[in-house]
Amino acid sequence: MSRVIELYDFLHTIPELGFEEHKTAAFLAGELQKAGFTVTERVGDTTGVIGVYDSGIDGPTLALRADIDALGHMIDGNLCAMHTCGHDAHSAMVLSAAEELIKTGSVQKGKLKIIFQPAEELGTGAPAMIKAGAIADVDIILGAHLRPIEELTIKQSTPALYHAASQRLKGLFHGVPAHGARPHLGVNVIDAAVAAITAVNAIHLNPNESYSIKATRFTCDSGVTNAIPAEASVIWDVRSELNSTMEKLIEKAKAAIEAGAATVGATVEVTNYQGIPAAEYSDEMVDLLAEAITAAYGAGGLHAPVKTAGGEDFHFYSKEKPSIKAGYFGLGCDLMPGLHHPDMKFNKDSLEKGKEIFLYAAKKILQG
């Protein structure tokens, strides 16, 4: 059995939720130490792990980043951690590539930094690592993600996976309670929330800019069915291909929510949270990853860039440090029926290709 599949098979047996990846972090830290890296655990007082190998010769600092958390699924009424987004595969590819780079003496200049990042699914893992200084000295950062079969087959990979920006908007509506027999004495927040949802649905931006906004949670209960409720909350899921589009969409949505509530005399507090930026990559890194994919598969395996409405907190790294050269490839692996599905499966043989892509890119950057 190959090293990358061996690592994957073990990591798959110890899924842990965001910021609770204690077994996973301990294992990854131990393997990095064995490989010859200087390791820092509990980065920023989280479960993050960083390994550094310094060649001692001037050159760039290259970071290979993998997310390490699992997803929570309700199984038979119980919350269970399951690796259904491929983070165990990402960690296995990065770790096996890191081991081979050291073993083969391929770090001939600069530094190789391995970032095992927690809590990607929460959208707060990358910001926590950044706050702890994880990329302060990083010049280049590379990452990867498994892709569903609808995007890529096992015979191909993409050098640029463009995630969308995503945010959540919350509207907390305030009305006036009243008896159901005397609705004229109250302000019904259900009416206010519905008016706000309708107003948001009427937003129109440039149709050439891909975006979506939709209500995904509506909570309201006065406790009885013969009373006018005075408080409700609505959450909207907001996504856009471009960060600039997201800014416009949030601004218009906030105005629409406030106007909708005002039509019935209610007030509303609007907040946005869980914001994740859209992908922005270095052309140089996209070209390098395209070269690496071609080397791994042949010319027929190089797929065009892929756009997805999904989010990824990897993109905080380039947002918070614009000078960093970021690259992120999508790995074809015949993944079905889909990411985040409790029955997610993929062809593990693809992990060899993923490791090869990381190796090729790293050698181009760090060899003398």
Structural class given helices, strands, pairing? alpha/beta
CATH class of the largest domain: Alpha Beta
Low-confidence stretches: none
Distance between the termini: 32 Å
**What fold name stands as the CATH topology of the largest domain?**
Aminopeptidase
Compute the number of strand runs.
17
Task: Report what the structure shows.
The chain has 9 helices and 17 strands. With 368 residues, the protein is an alpha/beta fold. The chain folds into 2 domains: 3-164 and 279-366, Aminopeptidase (3-Layer(aba) Sandwich), CATH 3.40.630; 170-276, 2-Layer Sandwich (Alpha-Beta Plaits), CATH 3.30.70. It has a 7-stranded mixed beta sheet, with helices on both faces. Strands 12-14-10-15 form a 4-stranded antiparallel beta sheet, covered by helices on one side. A two-stranded antiparallel sheet has the order 4-5. Helix 2 packs parallel to helix 3 (87-103). The two termini are 32 Å apart.
Entry summary:
The chain is of the alpha/beta class. It is built from nine helices and 17 strands. The strands form five sheets. The chain has a seven-stranded mixed beta sheet with strand order 1-2-6-3-7-17-8, with helices on both faces. Strands 12-14-10-15 form a four-stranded antiparallel beta sheet, with helices on one face. The chain has a two-stranded antiparallel ribbon with strand order 4-5.
